[in-house]
Amino acid sequence: MSLNQDLDPLTLRKVFAQHPSGVAALCAEIDGVKTGIVASSFTVGVSLDPALVMFAVQKTSNTWPKLRRAQRIGVSVLSSRNEGVCAQIASKKGDRFAGLHTHITEQQALFIEESTLARYLHLQRG
């Protein structure tokens, strides 16, 4: 069985969604527009000094080229209780932030207030 031939992308996505991993919303306000992606490949503790995290972005992402221009990116760690938030920000249509409570820093990093952590991490572009 070849995965490339037997599983369409939607089926593969559903299968991968069953695998638990670290999930984070990476968001910023860019030119007055709230922009964000969900990274299910989120890894913490890459470095504590300086504080670094690691994540991967799909090559075909239309959002990442916009988001990577941000001076700072807000990292909101999500859990199973944030399933709806995760699905909304990952959506390819509609307002990804409609109805969500957010906080934007002076550096335009955007945080999801419904996220798991009370304290938020800042990912400085470097």
What are the defining features of this structure?
globular; disordered N terminus; disordered C terminus; two-stranded antiparallel ribbon; 126 residues; 8 strands; alpha+beta
Reconstruct the topology from this structure:
Layout: H1 3-6, H2 9-16, E1 23-30, E2 33-39, E3 43-48, E4 51-54, H3 64-67, E5 72-78, H4 83-90, E6 102-104, E7 110-112, E8 121-124
Antiparallel strand pairs: 1-2, 1-5, 3-4, 5-8, 6-7
Side-by-side strand order of the widest sheet: 2-1-5-8
Radius of gyration (CA) equals 15 Å
**N-to-C span:** 43 Å
Question: What's the main sheet like?
Answer: 4 strands, antiparallel
Structural notes for this entry:
The protein is built from four helices and eight strands, in the order H-H-E-E-E-E-H-E-H-E-E-E. The protein is of the alpha+beta class and 126 residues long. It is 19% helix and 33% strand. The chain has helices spanning 3-6, 9-16, 64-67, 83-90; strands spanning 23-30, 33-39, 43-48, 51-54, 72-78, 102-104, 110-112, 121-124. It has a four-stranded antiparallel β-sheet. The chain has a two-stranded antiparallel sheet with strand order 3-4.
Short account of what is shown:
The chain is α+β, with helices and mostly antiparallel strands and 126 residues long. Helices cover 19% and strands 33% of the residues. It contains 4 helices and 8 strands.
